[in-house]
Fold these 2 entries.
Entry 1:
Amino acid sequence: MGRAPCCEKVGLKKGRWTTEEDETLSKYIEANGEGSWRSLPKNAGLKRCGKSCRLRWINYLRADVKRGNITTEEEDTIIKMHNSLGNRWSLIAGHLQGRTDNEIKNYWNSHLSRRLHTIRRPSGEDPPTIVMDLAKIGGGCKRKGRTSRAAMKKNNRNNNDSNSNNNNKTLSSKEVLTEKSEGESCESGLIDPMPLQEESMRNDVELLEGLERKGMILDTDMWVEKRHVPAQGLILDGGSRSLLSEEIESSERTCLNGDSEKGILGPCDGLETSMLFCDDIMGDGVLMIPSGNSVVSEEKENGASSFSEGEMGLVMSSTKGTSSEERGSGGMSSNGESGEWYSSGSISSCFQDSDWVNWNWDGVVEGPNLSHEGEELLSWLWDSDNGEVGKMVEFEQEKALSAWLLS
DNA sequence: AAGCATTGCAACCGCGATCCA
DNA sequence: TTGGATCGCGGTTGCAATGCT
């Protein structure tokens, strides 16, 4: 038996709320207060589900709901907090005055998630093959269809203030990101590096080379040509995934196992490689793990929900693949294997030695150690970003830490 | 001008958490 | 302690709005 419905659905109205319904709901709640959502529609004379009434009130009718566009400050806060907290929209919304979880969630899904990461592949012949830069996101190639409202507003703003962006102003990476993201054309995913990003790219190169020295796989060619999987795996972002997907799918030696809809690729007969794609915080992720282990099959059964918490840049060093269970929410593997993990909003710092943290699944679950989520939050706090964003969210960081501790 | 493609947002849905008798 | 009722959250869907061809 399933649970009882929250309300009698027969005869209830669905879809958009009319102004009359809004007025009715508002007047009733103003007179009687919030709560008792189940009985509210009947008492108020609304042919709506109680849940629908609650949602309408919380997301739209409440007096303290903030209208208008998400500001850049709010956007930065969202990004930072999402990096640490994952899809905990209500928690994030709690740090943004007047914003609802639904609004934050929608904004994330429609604006932020697809432009936070991308992959670059220099045309040069030398490795490293993969270069990632936070600011290289882009909405991809020129698209058809409606320009985003944000872009329209931006265009309007730019038209009104045509000189504002032509004065060699140094853009923050996010600004660059935003500028690049809206409907600009690109070629094969390659974008000329912005001056501001060159150092970051160098860091990426150095760090990725460092990881390669650690024996981790860094080179897509290695994957495509050698199909050799070292003892480690690497989660990449959506851009990496796309690139790898293209290359691997174009390879004769590769086959999809039919679970591609779930995001699982491989294992393939005769190959040593398995890949697990997972939706990640910033869109997509790729987890590369050795085939023949239990992780792949487990993930198939469980719908590849691992790593959906949204952490970015997880690096595995376990040879047996320990990460089959959900991370971040207590559902850790209990097989007691240990490894290393890292989380960051940028893969650049992902491979810095100092950022490597030894973890132990058992410890995460039951020991006094910080949970994964906590580690992430702390890593964010430790990662003293002296930039504007970092300053701006200091207070939010404190609140986030408090919220996390309380939770 | 019409149809198509795409976006963004409001709303719905299912489920876990919490409350309470 | 138990189980039903309710709340709250996050994922997903539907559709109006809008730009492009």
Note: The longest strand of chain A covers residues 273-280.
Entry 2:
Amino acid sequence: MANNLQFSIAVHLLAGLACGCDQKGVTSGHLAESVNTSASFVRRTLAKLSKAGLVETATGKAGACWLAKDAKNISLLDIYQAVDAPKAFAIHGYSEQKACFVSCHIKAALEKALTKTQKAMAASLAEISLAQIVSDVKKK
Amino acid sequence: MANNLQFSIAVHLLAGLACGCDQKGVTSGHLAESVNTSASFVRRTLAKLSKAGLVETATGKAGACWLAKDAKNISLLDIYQAVDAPKAFAIHGYSEQKACFVSCHIKAALEKALTKTQKAMAASLAEISLAQIVSDVKKK
DNA sequence: TTATTCTGCAACTATTGTGGTAACAGTTAT
DNA sequence: ATAACTGTTACCACAATAGTTGCAGAATAA
């Protein structure tokens, strides 16, 4: 476990909604079955997607959820940001050792590198739309 | 904790070796002080870098380590691969639900997306050399 | 109105990946 | 021989993650 699966699962959920493999009126329970995880975790993830404006939900007895936009207009980057997935790599937060200037200044240098890499990653994710994922799934 | 810091620390270590902030004959103990972690963890990380041919070490009483190549010829990608850092994102490994074809085929689609993103990330890391990092550190 | 069945949210628990620690074998300079 | 380092392994503690449970709120149907 201990790895962050929310992004992966969020894409799965949205793909499910996008291709309507279940008929109208999909509940978190249905989605949970497809992903094979707990309904609660689905709702937790779905809540983030909802806040990001990627899905809309209905409460109440006939509760359900659906895509808020066309799958073509949802990129993996949107999803990545919505679930607040971890950065490309982490930077260690040890206290600086005054005697060694590498120790004092490495953090800034690493952050610069991280920013650059993060941008490259984001650009790549932005190029993939949910529609593309759905298409790949259906092709198989 | 629980985040992977090896990459970050490896860069720190190599930067330290590259700029020779400590005089010749750097031991894992010295490096550990700079990074502010345990000597053992330094050795563990250093061992990976050594296997990848980025550093060379001397065993025995006067043990030490130094860069195997010029800092200009070491990219962050080399370091990233040497420490076997985690991928851009993880893919969930839940079992397939036969009734739902999204569940059955999402993994392949995700892997395709991951490969693409991973390449973008690698390309970005490849553009940054250790010499660049050292330069940034010294500039500060 | 009442019962039902969803979502939304907030604990709490269990698992597991991570670095920290310690111990030991191997190597080399003194 | 002794000392001091690397290389490696095994084990421990911590923390982040997902799983679980419970409950309030909302909408529908009777």
Note: The mean pLDDT of chain A is 89.
